[in-house]
Amino acid sequence: MEKHTEYILTVKELCKYYGDGNSRVCALDHLSFEVGSSQLVAVLGNSGSGKSTLLNMLGGMDRFDSGSVCFDGVELGRMSDRELTAYRRNTVGFVFQSFNLISGLTAIENVKLTADPESHGAAEDALCLVGLSDKMRRYPSQLSGGQQQRVSIARAIAKNPKFFLCDEPTGALDSETGKTVLKCLERLVREYSKTMIIVTHNAEIAKIADRVIRMKNGKIISDETNTNILSSNEIEW
Amino acid sequence: MKTMLRAVIKKHIKLLISVTLIASLGFSLSWGLSGGYVSLERSLRDYVEKYHYPDVCITTEITTSDDADSLLAIDGVQGCDTRLFADTLMKTSDEDYFSVRVFSYTDSERQTFCRWSESDGGDGVLIEYNFAENNGISAGDTVSFRVRDEYRDYTVSAVISRPETLSAKVSDNAWGLNYDFGYIYAPAVLLAEEFEKDYRDNKAQLDEKSDELSAQKNSAQKLLDEKEDQLMQAKKLLSEMREEYLSSSVEAESAIEELNKTKDELLSSEQELEEKKAELAAAYETAASTVEELSSKLDLLTRAKEGLDEINAAEKELKSAGDRLRSDSVQRLISLLSDLPDSAKMSELISGAEELSDYLDQMDKIGFHYDLSAPIGFLEKTLNDFEAQMDADYAYLSSHKVEAMIASSEAFSPTDAGYSELNAVLRRYSAVSVTDAASLKSAYQTALSRLTALRDLARRPSIRQTLDLLKSIETDRSAKELLNSVLSAENELRGLSEGASLEQMTAKDVKQLYTQALEQTDEALDTLSKSRGSVIKELSANGIGESDLPGTLTQLSDGIASARSAYAELKDASVELDEGITDIKDGIAEIDDGISEIEGKLSDGQSQLNSVENEIAGGESKLSESAKEMRVFTDLEDELERAYKKLGDSEGYDRLCNQFLLYLEDDADADRVLEQARAALSDSAVKSGYTYRQSPVKKRIDNNLNPMSAMMSMLPAIFFGIVLIVVFLFMSMIIRQSRRDIGILMALGIGKASVRGMFCVVAAGVALGGIILGSGIGLAVRGYVGGYFKSFFPLPEFTYLPDIGGFAVGALATFGVCVTATLIGTVMIERITPKEAMSRPVQADISVPAFLNRLLSKASPMLKFNLTSLFRNKGRFLFSTICVSTSVMMIFTSVSFIASKNHVIHQTFDERIRYDCQIFFENDPSDDLLSEIEAIEGVSEAEKVLIYDIAVSSDKGSEQTTVYAIAPENRMIGINSMNGESLAPERGTIIVDRHLADALGGVEVGDSLTVASNRFTVSGMTDQCVNRAQYITQENVSGTGKPELYSVLCRFDGEPRRRLLAFLTEHDDYLYTVFTEALYNINHQLYATYDLAAWILIAFGVLIGFIIVLNTAITNLQDNKRELCVLRTLGFQHTEISRSRFTQSLLQFITACVIGLISGTFLARFTLLRISTPTEEFAYACGVKEALIVSLIVFLYILFSHLAAMRTMKKWNHAEVVKDKE
After folding, report:
1. Looking at the partner chain, which of B843, B1132, B1218 has a beta carbon nearest the beta carbon of A100?
2. Domains of chain A
3. B1123:A56 CB<8 A
């Protein structure tokens, strides 16, 4: 992979602690890395490695204690709560492990939640993109896990964010379904040139990434460019 | 377990404290408020019971208590007390005077009175509390009473509460409080001092009365005798008058008889004349009809003659025209035209003929004769010859020779050769005789000129054309004939052309025209002939020949003239007859007048006689009445004797009394007892008496306190019920929040009973805390409420009786609810496996009704999510809405009461009462008194009002009611219709209250009512909340009887109270004064007690509503925690979510308001109906304004609840929730 000289995301000496006094835990320990555009970055690590905490920091869902996170030249640490919310609304597309769809809304309505009301048809297009154009009027309870996750991906796509943050997107799915979902995500990067960070503990998934960052105990233990990128069809679950 | 218990308590400490406080609040309000009121009510009733009100009260003249024995003997009477009372004046300073009623009391009564304050005044007077407080009198003060003409000082030994006053304050008639008329209780000895002096005075009065009576009797007897003598003389006079009348009437009758005879004769003459007049009228009519007949015949014949004349004239004309048309000349012309081509133009022919004729005339004048009788063919030759001649002559005259001759004519001589030829030529063309040169020249010029003209004429084409035309047709006819034919016939034919020019016609046209004219003429002649025939035929039918017609006409005219003359003579005769009849009628009328006069005089005479007889009869009647009246003196003498006897009996003051109080057995008939008591005491001794089978005080208390106490018990019970529901909810919430902990305990093997027991301990702790705290607060509330009521109801001793039953019920209910909520919650959790308990409850899908889905299909997803999530727990939403509705209902009911109360006060004190005081008198105050009152400084106006307690009847019923007789120009009492328009009764009209109208069977404006014996028309209708009355004017009070009360209404423009009271107390008729300000204050104070309850209800309604809505909002948030955190994660601002979430609260607000306002309306009406009394109605007075106020209050607390709930959301760690880590 060629190195991207333009970084849209820069993390420097990022630290996050939980608790205080004797029970203080360092969840992130002076993390530093950059992410370029149209990159698929996988963050690997076991439970407690701090990968989810990192995702929270990058997504503006929590505040870090020290360091900086810059997105497109804007420092997240200086943003107010309101600005962070707007950042999440306009800049970041989230995909959660547990889908987090609103149960009382149909698929299209879930997608429209965050779509720009001015852009007509964005929600429909997003659902088409993920192959669910025929399931628009279904409620989450009427969809399979994979379909729900794809709706969640469509919701993230519909607002046309600058980059995507995926937290164990296939964690709650079986292998076949997981592959389907992964294919969707992969397409976003390869065909639509989106930037994506996937947090996972599954090393196989990391094989589709351009770059793999491994974490342990809140630190980055390796940050490697993937020389043998596989497609989602090729990986073994 | 203890550790677990501590942990649970610590975890939910805030909630537990909240629940405890809420429980204590409900408990305290329930027990404190209602308990306070119930204690008050109980104290009031106990006091009334203790006082032991009598069943019958009789007021008499001063007598002794010995009469009580006769009353005790009446069946049904259990006991009898006697006492003295007197109305007198009291003053507390030189300026402050009061009318007071002083009662004596017994020792037992002295103990019974509820004492407000006391002094060491010993056997002083007891002053009633309200009167004392309002006038600044305290125990230990010295007051002065007027005893006869002097004031004596007494000490106030105590200020007491009197049952009547208490009842007045709680009663339906706070108007009964007359602070300027005080009730005083004094020992009998004090009163007896008054009456001891009375005794002596009375005796003196009796003596005086006795002397007066004797003198009156003697003078009356003397007067009676005089009257008898006068009567005898009058009778004698009457007898004389009667005889005179009889003789006069006989003469008059004979005169009348003669006059009647004369009248009959005149009548018969009149009849004859009438008959003659009728005959004359018949002849008159005959003459008129004859004239008419002849006239019409004459007209007919005249028209016939005129017709014939016209026919003849027309015939003649037509014949003449026909002759002309058939004339030779016309015939010749037509013949001529027949020979001409059809297209030959008449214009050419006629003008050509004229010119040719003229030419021939010219020729003839010159001497060139042509015989016009010769055929036309020769004319041409003649013309040619003539023209040749003219040419030759012209050439000659124009020759040089002739010119030279003319030029040298001065040397002319007629005999010269050459001149003869010239002369001949000249003579041809000129009439000038040539005699000399001048004449020669003249003749030459003339001849030349004429010749030239002739030559021009000869050259006209028309002449040759005409000649050719004439030649072409017939050459044998002479020219004369032809020309004449043309010229003479032209005129005949011109008339036929009818406006069209004959010259424009062709020969064919003229021939046609001629033919038509001939035919028409013949036709017209034929028509005329026929008309003539028919006229003649008609005349013949009437026997008149044509030749006879003129003669007949003349005869007819003569006949008509004769008939008219006869008609005029008859008319004159008729007029003479009419005059004769008129004279006769006048004569008859004079006779009638004469008879009437005589009869009139006779009648007058009779009337005079009757009148004198009546006077005499009247005098006799009066005399006998006077004789009867003399018997009154006998009765008065008897009375005097009795009074003397009584007076003798009343010397002992301790036996004096003027009021008897009877206590009856339970089943005794009070009215019967009263009747018997009157008889026993003798009617003349009894001044008044009344019964109240059930003590009026008790009755008033029952009427008024029962609804209030029902409300005071019911509403706190509702409070408490809602409180318990809230407690239930909170306890359930605590258990729900402990689900996980319970699951862990179960997973660890702790038994269900232990778990339940642990939570029940928590619940019991909450209940106990609530009860203890509530008891403390309740006592304080009771104290406050009691103190508040006590300040209004003057019971110095107010026993707070512990309501053990209520306390027990409340405590049990509190315990029960807390423990039940806990048990239900724990049992439900224990039914599921420990694993399920420990894990997050699976949220059920939201099942949304299809119609709602369709409705929200166009809404934003956020809005849809927030509204549909309500359906996740429909029961909670429903319950919460019901609670808020109840809150709305309670608030609205209270607001309705306040509005109604304000309406009562406004209607009474702003609209109706426009005076500052009402002064009551025992008798009718005179106009002078009114003027004197008005003259007091500070009094601007005074107006009299009479108050009747009287029956008003309609066709359908009768009701006893209050009727005000007001001044016609009333300004003091505002009387408004139900629409707010100002009403004023007029003479003969009455304004009634709606309630009376309903009670009388639906009386309407325009109906008639009877008040006493007077009929009134209903002119208006009011709807009064308090003291309903009907209104008439004082012009209509005759026959209505004695008013119940006489009063004067006054307006102030200053502060005249002291001066006014000082003035009034000097008048014997003065009773007491009621100041409007005092009335207003007492009503305000009375209603303020209701206000207290209303405001408490409002506060509680708001509090409960707030708590319920807050709890619901927080719970709903919890239910949607995950989704809301997802939305936050997805980038929705807190304010966005809050705004959208508020739709749930809005929906609840709208639903609750609708339900609450509707139900509140019903509850308000019901409540107002319950607290209304027959004389004080709390009408429903709410409108849109009140509904909006309530809605605003509810909206505000819903908004605050929502904001408070949303604040809890800010504390969530949405990132963790989204990741299932919370």
Report:
1. B1218
2. 37-63+82-225 (3.40.50.300)
3. no
In angstroms, the separation between the Cα of residue B12 and the nearest Cα of chain A is 23
Q: Report whether B577 contacts B277 (CB < 8 A).
A: yes
| CB contact set of B426 (below 8 Å; sequence gap of 6+) | B432, B434, B440, B443, B444, B446, B447
A160–chain B Cβ distance below 8 A for any pair: no
Average pLDDT of the residues in B151-162: 80
Give every CB contact of residue B990 below 8 A, 6+ residues apart in sequence.
Answer: B952, B963, B1009, B1011, B1016, B1017, B1018, B1019, B1030, B1031, B1032
pLDDT of residue B145: 80
Q: Which residues in B lie closer than 8 A to residue A124 (C-beta atoms)?
A: none
Measured CA to CA, the distance from residue B31 to residue B27 in angstroms comes to 6
The pTM score is 0.57
Residue B101 tokens, joined: 């009623």
Is the pLDDT at B1099 greater than 90? The verdict is: no
Is B848 an interface residue toward A (CB < 8 Å)?
A: yes
Pairing of strands A40-44, A195-200: parallel
Does A97 reach chain B within 8 Å, measured CB to CB? yes
Q: Are B1047 and B918 in contact (CB under 8 A)?
A: yes
DSSP state of B165: H
B935 by Cβ neighbours in 10 Å (0-12 / 13-18 / 19+) ranks as exposed
List, for residues B642-685, the tens digit of each pLDDT value.
766 655 554 555 567 778 888 888 888 888 888 888 888 875 56
A104 near B CB under 8 A: yes
The Cα A80–Cα A213 span in angstroms is: 29
Give CA–CA dist B1184/B1186, Å, rounded: 6
Model pLDDT for residues B879-897, shown as the tens digit of each residue: 888 888 888 988 898 898 8
> Looking at chain B, which residue has its C-alpha nearest residue A98?
B1219
Backbone φ, ψ for residue B888 (5° rounding): -60, -40
C-alpha to C-alpha distance for A32 and B113, rounded to whole angstroms: 96
Interface of B with A in 1107-1126 (CB under 8 A): 1122-1123, 1126
Predicted confidence pLDDT, tens digits, chain A (237 residues) = 344 447 889 999 999 998 878 888 899 999 999 998 889 999 998 888 999 899 989 988 888 999 999 988 889 998 988 888 888 888 899 898 888 888 878 899 889 888 877 777 889 999 998 889 999 989 888 999 889 999 999 999 898 888 899 999 888 888 888 888 888 888 888 888 889 999 988 888 888 899 999 999 999 999 988 877 777 777 665
SS3 B624: helix
Q: Which two tokens stand for residue A28?
A: 């992130």
**3 state DSSP class of B919:** strand
Per 3-state DSSP, chain A is made up of helix, strand and coil in percentages (nearest 5) of: 35, 25, 40
- Is the pLDDT at B747 greater than 80? The verdict is no
Contact B794, B163 (CB under 8 A): no
CA-to-CA distance for B92 and B97, rounded, in angstroms? 7
β-pairing verdict for A7-18 and A66-71: antiparallel
Q: Do B1219 and A94 touch (CB under 8 A)?
A: no
Nearest CA in chain B to A62: B1215
A92 contacts on B by Cβ (under 8 Å): 1131
pLDDT score at B1020:
94
Q: ipTM of the predicted structure?
A: 0.80
> Other C-beta atoms within 10 Å of B244: how many?
11
CA–CA distance, B44 with B167 (Å, rounded to integer)? 9
- Give the C-alpha distances (Å, rounded to integers) separating B552 from B557, B565, B965, B1016: 9, 20, 100, 89
Cβ-contact B1108, B880 below 8 angstroms: yes
